[in-house]
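batch_manifest entry 22 of 60
target: Resolvase-like protein
source organism: Asanoa ferruginea
requested by: lab member K.T.
priority: normal
notes from requester: please return tokens only, no post-processing; we will run our own comparison against the previous entry in this batch. if the run fails, retry once and flag.
--- input ---
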Amino acid sequence: MLSVGLVGVMGHLVEVEADLSAGLPAVVMSGLPDTALNEARDRVRAAVVNSGERWPNRRITVNLLPATLPKHGSAFDMGIAAALLGAAGELPLAALDGVVILGELGLDGSVRPIRGVLPMVVAALRAGVHHAVVPLANAAEAAVVPGITVKAVETLHRLVAFVRSGAALLDPPADRPPPESPMPDLADVAGQALGRRAIEVAAAGGHHVAMFGPPGAGMPSDTVLLMITEYLSGYVRLSKEHGDTNVSLAGMVADVVAMAERYGYALAPHPGPDCPESCQGQPVHVDDGISGAVRNRPAFLAWLADGRSGAASALGTWHTDRLTREGVNAGALVLDVVEGKDPLTGRVVFPPVRFLGSDGTDSRDESAFRFRFVIDAEVGRAERARISARNRAKDARLRAAGRFAGGGAPYGYRVVPAPDGKGKALDIEPVEAAAIQQAASMILAEDGTTLGDVTRWMTANAPARRTSGWSRSTLKHCLTNYALTGAVMVRPRDAAGNRATNNRETQPLLDDAGNVVRPWPQILSPATVEAVRTALSGRRGGARRGAGRAPAHLLTNLMSCSGCGRPMNIWYARKRQYFCPSDRLSLFCPRRVSIQADIAEAYLVGLYLGAVGDNEMQAPVVTVAGGGERERVESELADVMRALSRQITPELVARITDLQTERDALAAMPVQRHTEWRPTGRTFREEWERRADDVLWRRSLLAEAFAELTVLPGRMPVAQRIRYRWSDIEPFATLAELKRDLEWYGG
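--- output ---
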């Protein structure tokens, strides 16, 4: 694999090699790499995994030739990734022979721009290489070099698709002329005949100009007025063209232009081709088809930038209540620009500008401007809330009638006309649904199939709706979506109807009876989706994270939720708590139950030690029949192997054969174990305190003692919230019978 390294401003061709060998998984870099290049192993690993590729779980050696040339920077990331995947057998690298690969990798698999791509491409051409793959952001710079074919990629996934299936790479973007910046013109100056005459004479004869006057006469400002005129930068916004001249885009633009003429301002020179498409051909900044609820509107931000940079001495807009739908929060952005303040510190850092509205708003009216602006912004926010409530009511009516409320259909479904011809509905997309069912079966199969294996299978067999293809995160999100059960998914809202800011996950819609609304056909059953969610919980990359690891908390999976019966796990909120693992308002537990961990553990430990704490503890002693004979054979075999390491003789070889035969015969015999319980001389309470750090041992005792531990909801004492039942083994069986008798007499 070819790449280029820079030494100063000179480029040198570098060959990237990768080798996989047996040993503990590690990545070793050689060839005089610097710190940034040494860190490439972490970047490349994350990029490869997040691009849906398999990371080889072996010892990896990456060598950069020539070894005597110092290498630095992150331009080798893509070359290292391609060489590594080729060495692992994941990619056929014949398509990349004679191709220089340059680019830095992000953790998500994106290809970032690098510095010095021009001398790198020149060096590759001098070395006889005529093809190069560079980041998309550097493609225009690399294409300047004649005689070399430059292609661009924006993700590692695109490069992999090109090597595997010949998918097309990107061409360098076409050159665009730089935006024209306005030049000062004396023709824009109104009046000041004497000053203009002095400037013209000085310019014609190459003379200096000196201005005299008492302090405060305004010589610097007069000079500025002679060189530039006062400009107004306009802005209008319309979410949707209604056809009414009172709210049309053309009508608003005409009002702003007339307002600028009325106040004696010239319209600020419009930005060049870098401005949004909606601004092209317009005399003001325009956000067409963008809601005022969106804060980062392109033309809106460019309009504010005109005020901050001094390109305009006034900001003009149509009615202020249409400027924003975010209320005072977004209105504060405009106020900071008008008053020349830094939004972080509140200090004045640039000249204030004038704010004008075609509805009569003027920031020079100090007595009423701020108050009126805030009121108008809040009116806009109230209008947004009213429209949002109306849309929610419309969606609720559509869902109640079994209609599709709009938006993108979940993967596996397609939008079709409703059976009665009124509105739209969802139907199964056969190809996508079959792929989802197969992927769920592969996830639930206990044959060692990893999430990465399923991701690669989906990439090869199922069409992805995103151009970037399938990744582990997108596949996991797809397979754990309750929409696959035919449920209507909505975002959680509070009592006022506002979306919860701390929860971006969707949840199934419930009817008045608390049942899940499922108007669409099912792709997966609710039990299958829940099983997939359980199987994928904590799974990252290949094997499940933490597989085989003992729980770190005493009651993990011992207590169950009274609402859904699922085992409760630990969760760190303000305090350590045991929570029901069901999602909020999910299919099986609309109300999650929780309890403070310290209180629950102290209560149950007190019950256990109160029952058996003073009893003498016994420990099992296991003896295996024939165990001594096996130990003798293994010991003799080890002695013979040590002797063979010093000298090889026919007698030792024959002895090894006999011992191995005897060991195999003993291994084939059934193992007979005998367990005998012997007193330890310590009580259960003493042993419990002695083994305070052995959480697994303590959990085993509690699991043996309690047959049921159920947590009830409410603000009751812990003794009333935890419902327990002793197990059927002694001495707990006697305690269980006594507890039942007491409850019967008490009842």
